[in-house]
C-alpha cells in the first residue's frame, strides 16, 4: 500500500485567512474614519471664499418697515445739516489668504454699505447725482460727497481652523494677523487682544453663550442663544449680540474717514436752540447696534444675519443739549439669494462629514462583520470541503447484484 505524500497548501486554504484579514481591515476603517479622518474635515477650509449681500429694511424687507436714514455729506457745505431716506445695500466678502496652514487660516474681509437711492426734497435721486453742496471740492484725502459708499472697513484676522477663534501667536516663525482699516487714507489698526467669533463659527458649535467680536467698535460682546428657526428648509439656531454705545472717534481717530467721526460746524448748522448760532460746536460719531445670526450648528455656517445699526453725532460739550444728528440708521438682512447660497454652503460642508463619518463607517462595519463570518466558515472543519489525495480515484459504485 503506497504511503501518502505530504499535504500541500492549496488556494482554497488561503480563502479563510484572507477574508479574516479583509474583514478586520474594514472594521478598523469603520473605527478610524470618524475619529481620525473626519476630524480633518471639521475645520475651516483653506478654499473659503464667501460673499454676502444684505439689504436695508424698506428695500427687501416688509413694506411696513421704516426706510434707512443717512447723513448727506453734501450738506457739510450747506447752511444746515441734511439727513435723507435711503435704500442701502451691505456687502461683505471674506476669503482665505496667506499665511495659512494645516492649523491656522487667515481671513481677509471687506465690508461696505452703499446707497442705491436717496430721497432729497421728496424726490428719489441717484446718490451720485449733483445736489445742494456737491459743487464744493472735497478736502485732500476726502472722497466726493456724491460717492455712494456710506462706509467701508477692511479686516484681516488669523483663526484657528478648528475652534474658529483668533490665533495670533507665532506659528512657523510668523505671528498671526489682526488688523482693521477704517479709511483708505489711514493705516490699519492692530488689535492684539481680539477675541470671539466674527464671520463664522466652528463645526459642531454648542447652543450656549459665546463671544462675538464687533469690527466697527472693536468690542468683544456676549453672543446669546435666542431659540431655533428655519431658513430655506434648514433647522438653525439664532444668536443675538448687542453692541453698546461707543464713540467711534476715540476708536478710530480718523475725522476724515467716511463718514467723518468728528464734525465741527456752527450751532445754526446743527440747529441747536438756545446757543449762539455762530458758535462752533464739535460732535463725534457714536455707534450702537445689534447683530442677530442664524447658525447651522453642524458646520458653524451663518445662514442668515440681521444687523441693526444706529450711528449718531453727539456733542462733546456736556453742557450742550443732548441733541443728536443721525449719521446712519438702518436694519440689514440677508437677501433671499444669499440665504440660499449660505444654506447650500452649509450642505456642502456637512456632506463629506456625514458620508465619511457615518455612511462609510456603517457600510464598512457591516461588510467587515459579514466578511469575517464567511472567513470563519471557510476555516471551520464542518464547512471545509473534503480533500482528495493526489492520484486517488473516486470510488466506483458497486455493481448491482443479479
Summarize the structure.
With 402 residues, the chain is an alpha+beta fold. The protein folds into 2 domains: 12-37 and 356-379; 42-334, no CATH class. The chain has 4 helices and 15 strands.
Question: What descriptive keywords fit this protein?
Answer:
DUF3068 domain-containing protein; 15-stranded antiparallel β-sheet; PorA; 2 domains; transmembrane; membrane; single chain; alpha+beta; 36% strand; 402 residues
Give a written overview of the molecule.
The chain has 402 residues and is α+β, with helices and mostly antiparallel strands. It has 2 domains: 12-37 and 356-379; 42-334, no CATH class. 20% of the residues lie in helices and 36% in strands. The protein has 4 helices and 15 strands. The chain has helices at 12-37, 248-252, 267-270, 336-379, and strands spanning 49-56, 68-71, 83-97, 104-120, 123-125, 149-160, 178-181, 189-190, 210-214, 219-231, 234-247, 262-266, 280-296, 301-315, 325-334. The chain has a 15-stranded antiparallel sheet that branches. A hairpin with a 2-residue loop joins strand 10 and strand 11 (234-247). Helix 1 (12-37) packs antiparallel against helix 4. The longest helix is centred in the last third of the chain and has 44 residues, at 336-379. The chain is elongated and about 110 Å long.
